[in-house]
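Q: My hope is that you can spare some time for a protein that puzzles me. Underneath my words sits a plain record pairing an amino acid chain with its backbone structure tokens. Those tokens are not coordinates but codes from a learned vocabulary of shapes. Thank you; the sequence and its tokens follow:
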Amino acid sequence: MSETGATARRATRAAPGAGTTRRGPVVAALMLSMALVSLDSTVVATAVPQIVGDLGGLSVFSWLFSGYLLAVTVTLPVYGKLSDTFGRKPVLVAGIVLFLAGSVLCASAWDMGSLIAFRVVQGLGGGALQGTVQTIAADLYPLKERPRIQARLSSVWATSAVAGPAAGGLLAGYADWRWIFLVNLPLGGAALWLIGRHLVEPRRSAPGDPVGDGERGRDGIRGGDGVRGGDGVPVGARARRRVSVDWAGALAVFGTGTLLLSGLVQGGVAWPWLSAPSLGLFGGAAALAALTVVIERRAAEPIIPGWVWRRRTIAAVNLALGALGLVMVAPTVFLPTYAQAVLGLGPIAAGFVLSAMPLGWPVTAALANRLYTRIGFRQTALLGMTLALLVLLAFPLLPFPGEPWQPALLMLLLGAALGFFQLPLVVGVQSTVPYEERGTTTASVLFVRQIGQSVGAALFGAVANGVLAARVGGGHENGHGDGSGSGGGDLDRLVHDLNTPGVLTEAAADRLRHAVATAVDSVYLGAAVAAALAVVVLLTIAPRRFPVLKEEPEADEGEPVNP
């Protein structure tokens, strides 16, 4: 270690309020925090029959997931900016506390309306967890080590995909569905304890502070107004920027996202796309979006700053991950339907077919750094999405009805391909911004990915139902041959009829299975188009070499981590 680096580290240790961050316990806390989010949907989905049987509300139960997703999505950019303004630790702690409070409230719900409202509370906490966990992971590890922590976080999602349905089924079947929310308490409590004890954030000194005016930072550079940290920004200047919070912009972003996502989630389901509710929601979202732009342009510290889209690298990653959100709709939303309606599997077995995808993801995520250190972030992501494109195109070639292992194998390959795609882009874009912009940047790419998923669910849902309507017509034959039954354009009702004994004749059921298979094939082809768009974005917008900032001296285990 150089004399300058040693001097910088001694200065950091000696600075009042400085502490030490132990990466091992903090990483464990991050994994527990991520487990709260990743287990949530899979566990709740398995227990839906028991929840509906106890509370009723079958017609609105989908909002158990839609309300949660909406709250997570619209709060991501707000939490990202707050983490840059006030620090990661208070935002993460607040998110865990809010998530756990929502869990307790969900366990005490007395009807479906109250449970949906409390799920929204959970989502408000989940938005803080998703973005802040990723940001802290980037803060703790230098560029060459970030794939290691990202692979660990990806493994949490893979484990949850396998364990979640089983845990939800066991709790709902042998205990009570309310326990699926109460089990969050020990996980969240352990995460809070580890974060409170072991995560120490960098010193934020104000102008006039001794460290800000005289001492050297970790890079050994003395600033006139204040020390420059490892990100090259004067600490005093950073402290001054933290005074202003754009609450008007936060409310505008929240309102815009709420109206837009509500229209996307409910359009074509609760009401027709061209109905007054849909037009009202989309019109309101457009008006609020225009107001948001005006507010953000005038704000001193906007929630969504203009540089998120003006910087070529960040804009390219945003668009590419938005396309990834579209791609993800095919397996996560439509593959379980395919497995149940075409392959004849039960809901839990169908979930396990889907769980093959996150199993391959962490493996390639752990290997990604060996590629991008040689060929670059963009080229590695291009390789991953090109492979994903080939897998998506292969899905319509599966035999009918086929065996469960065939789509499971394709999903394993798809997860492996997307591990090479997402991780280099996230790690790469985080490495192009300084510490005080990392939370906003991370939240922006996650926000656009979530919006992509919502748009994809609406778009591909319309595609699937359109194909079904064309193949089946206005109705299908039931067991009595009178032509009555559910409408041909309603995928959920067709799947219900296929899984209900005695509703359909064998010939009618086989015809409907072919129709569902064709509809899902169309969705996968649509996802392949989205994958091709991601490739085009990387080739035309993303720079060949990401402008990575100079790395700081690496912190050893147990030494102060002061990005």
About this structure: The domain at 20-201 is CATH 1.20.1250.20 (Growth Hormone; Chain: A;). DSSP finds 22 helices and no strands in the chain. Confidence is low (pLDDT under 50) at residues 1-18, 205-242, 474-489, 552-563. The longest helix spans residues 435-472.
